[in-house]
Amino acid sequence: MEEKVKGVVLCGGTGSRLRPLTYYFQKAMIPVGSKQKPLLEYIIRLLKYHGVPDIALLVNYKAEQIVNYFDDGSRFGVKITYVKDNPNYKGNGGAVYNAYKLGVFNGYEHVLIYYGDILTSLDLSALLLTHIRDSAAATLALSTNYSISVGVAKVEGNRIVKLEEKPRLSIPVVIGIAAVKVDVLRHLEDLAKELKDIDLMRDFIPLLVSKGYNVEAFLTDAFWYDLGSTERYEKLEPHIVDEILGFLF
């Protein structure tokens, strides 16, 4: 991979859906697996494994926990830059825009954006190669292997003719990982002029699509798990983490 890629991890949120845990932990620092390593360590190790050793951590809430644990990243074989969120630019899109304005991505052609509450075995190398090969403005990782958390019914009139517990969705689901060309991040400024809170998937990616940019899908059936809520965290079995992501250690 000749073109330079900067890893970007969004880990500044307060993690309100993970309370009361996040009264004490930054959500990216919650321990997972039998090793009880922070979630963020799995993310950083995955980025390094796939050849992305230059990483910007976009931090804010309880940032000290992250800095104290990871320092400059040398202990993990990576180079870490910390970017504190600017209160004038809210939302995860605002955090990325702030880093862009500060010149954090200067000298890089692409950024690999990774939401800091996602655990996955996704082949980041394949995603990046596809993104670069196809000259995409943005490439979104989409899961084809997502089951909803409730049962669904097929109803004819008032009669239930079929009941299915936790079925797989028939449409791809956004994982929370995307490769984006650095030069299109300038369009975040358009959004910053209009919105108080910018969301990458709700606002930025649709803007690129509306402007006619090549926005591609990277479909995968890899393991991925959103740890964004206390319920989800409690249901994550340590042995599953060990079996699927043990290669990182």
Let me know the CATH homologous superfamily: Spore Coat Polysaccharide Biosynthesis Protein SpsA, Chain A
Mean pLDDT over the full residue set: 89
Number of helices: 8
Domain count: the total is 1
How much beta, percentage-wise? 25-35%
Poorly predicted sequence stretches spanning 5 or more consecutive residues: none
Percent helix: 25-40%
How are the strands of the largest sheet arranged? 5-4-1-6-11-8-12
What is the rounded distance between the termini? 24 Å
Instruction: Please report the first level of CATH classification, the CATH class.
Output: Alpha Beta
Inertia-based shape: globular
Please provide the ordered H/E string of secondary-structure elements. EEEHEHEHEEHEEEEHHEEHH
Kindly state the number of beta strands.
Answer: 13
CATH architecture designation: Alpha-Beta Complex
The main β sheet shows up as: 7 strands, mixed
Instruction: Report Rg.
Output: 19 Å
List its salient traits.
single chain, 249 residues, alpha/beta, Spore Coat Polysaccharide Biosynthesis Protein SpsA, Chain A, seven-stranded mixed sheet, two-stranded antiparallel sheet, 29% helix
